Amino acid sequence: MGKLQVWFLTALLVLTGCREAATLTLANGEQRQLADYRGEWLVVNYFAEWCAPCLRELPLLNELGEAAGPAVLAVSFDAMPAQALQALQQRLAIKVPVVAGLAGPWPFELPRVLPTTFVLDPDGRLAERHQGELRAEDIARWRDSYWGTRDQGMVNP
């Protein structure tokens, strides 16, 4: 192997190892990475307090988050200071972790429609995108297709 090939392979390995991680910041300031959810399904829902369909689907997301199944994150579409976001979480009775922001290479782009929900597979790849208000039938279909069966006590359609 020539010097140029060795240099190229070394550079490639270094760059691969230095790739920015997909991270998130929770409303309480805690930092996490997408890699923390490896091995489990992840539902990422974008919401805003001014979005009526977002508010209507929150009970479904809370129920999904409490059931045996995927991890669920609610991402605030609007940039808010941590204290205001925590107060919003309490006021809206959001039981799933609330995310102040995402950074790095997530497998989806910032939504242009609210609400928008992304389902990520256990390897962190995008399995599905849902634009608009979630219904119990949508979650039941995901449950049946992705992470479990109807008898696991999750959302009833």
TrEMBL record:
Record's keyword annotation contains Signal = yes
Q: Which domain of life is it from?
A: Bacteria
Q: Where is the signal peptide?
A: 1-21
UniProt xrefs under InterPro entries: AhpC/TSA, Thioredoxin-like_sf, Thioredoxin_CS, Thioredoxin_domain, Thioredoxin_ResA/DsbE_sf
List GO molecular-function terms, semicolon-separated: antioxidant activity; disulfide oxidoreductase activity
Q: Which Gene3D superfamilies match?
A: Glutaredoxin (3.40.30.10)
Protein name (Swiss-Prot/TrEMBL): TlpA disulfide reductase family protein
> What organism, scientifically named, is this protein from?
Oceanimonas pelagia
